[in-house]
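Regression report. Comparing outputs from two consecutive submissions.

Submission 1:
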Amino acid sequence: MKPVLIIRTGRAPAPIRARHGDFPHWFRLGAQLSPDRIRVIDVEAGEELPAPSEVAGALITGSAAMVTERAPWSERTAGWIRDAMDEELPMFGVCYGHQLMSHALGGRVDYLPGGREIGTVSLNVLDAAKNDPLASALPLQFRAHATHEQSVLELPKGTTVLVSSARDPHHLVRYGKNAMSAQFHPEFNADVMRAYIHRKQHDMKREGFDPHHTFKQVAATPLARRLFRQFSRHHGLATG
């Protein structure tokens, strides 16, 4: 059986890792992947990706890096994404992974106007989602965790926007029948979201945001997590 890749583009901050684990662990749990099915490739550390034809699917993590830096490892991964799209490989990118997928396919990434978006945010499901095999099951509004400074400002041609927030119009997009990406974090639980807000509180205050209010607004996000799980099941990647 072909493995499912978790393409690691970064690490959670050390204090968060120590208490809550890290991206591969959260992705495995969120997408309901069997431990013996996954293969973690740390592209930020220079590890090479296998050919798309050798894997069953790929999930692309977040990162503290910025897509606009165009680091060599990031640009190599963008090239791999283009090859994977040619193979119609099931792919789901999250946060940095979302931005990198759009960048790889011809979109434009840069800093989100108005500053960072962080906390449990309310998302709006767009009309285009009605015909989507996964997003059609979402209600008109749902909550998800987010923390990002950059965003996809211009989408690649042929991309369908499924979900938006008040701050970011491109929170969930579909690139083809097997490839999606989300700016929000379906793999986060509420404790992880609170840990990120606590870590970013000084930056938030400096930028005019109220971290205490944002912290209090953190809530469970079962529908965002369910979408991640359903993607995995829909493409035969999940354990159950």
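Submission 2:
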Amino acid sequence: MSDEKVAVIAAGGSGMGAASARRLAADGFKVAILSSSGKGEALAAELGGIGVTGSNQSNDDLKRLVDATMERWGRIDALVNSAGHGPRGALLEISDEDWHRGIEVYFLNVVRAVRLVAPIMVGQKAGSIVNISTAWAFEPSAMFPTSAVARAGLAAYTKIFAEQYAAENVRMNNVLPGWIDSLPATEERRQSVPMQRYGSSEEIAATVAFLASPGAGYITGQNIRVDGGLTRSV
């Protein structure tokens, strides 16, 4: 078994997932990256890691990534769950199929990966799971209905997980990004942010890396807003 720190990043081919992979690699982690586009394999090769082309909506693809990681390094210290984009639309016009699709994209992506990785971390008596969620999980917006609903469920899941596995030194937290530069910019959105700017994918990655680090060793079950002051509820 290797003594190296190892991070698995699901949906890490672009945007905040890719930025998180780069930051974790810079912090000394060996990285294993899953993406559906093939960009994750290219990024992993660049970073000296493992890349698998597949979907975080597939148990088989996730298992291929986890198995390859364990075969090469023998441990997983951090799991980062990112996500793609789910359905949007007028609230009463969203079909059953699209609600289910939103749950697949924004909630079950985490459940599947955690089911595979958490037992490994429990065996190690150490591990950090970080889920990239949304600033609108607690102040939902009609712009992102399936995301807000599914990720409110993710917040509940995270609290339950933290209560059950904190004693095993396995932590789970959510990062809640606001308007980030991986999205198309509009002046109206920019003006809605007290900091008067979009955040960067690198700022999200820095928060992810902190939550994966020993410095965050007493933080679990939390939802960390990284949104320039956009949302304000307690």
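Expected: both submissions complete independently.
Actual: both completed, but the second showed a warning that disappeared on reload.
Relevant detail on submission 2: The chain has a mean pLDDT of 94.
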